[in-house]
Amino acid sequence: MRRRRPASRAQVPCGPINHPLYKILDDPQVVRNGVVVEATHPHAGEMRFARPAARFEGDPFGVRRHAPLTGEHSGEVLGELGFSRAEIDEMRARGWVHTGKLPDDSSRHQ
Predict the structure, then answer these.
(1) Does pLDDT of 59 surpass 80?
(2) Residue 90 is inside which H or E element, if any?
């Protein structure tokens, strides 16, 4: 805390820096303020991260889905651009497009 004293004497707002970054998620004030959100990712498992800072009354923040995998929505985007399922499958087969399809996810349009 030695570096903090001159700033404090000069009435400059200051405080300790939480480093390394991973310690921030365990900080008592961060936990008490509900900043930490937990979610399950299909490949990474349980994850903890900081929610967005802005809060709006009546609109609680929640994790609706995991962060997309690389190319996870490529099939949907290409379909919206007018490509047929057969064209998308051919692009995938040729390696032109990675659709990020999960092995157990045969029900989604990729």
Answers:
(1) no
(2) helix 85-93
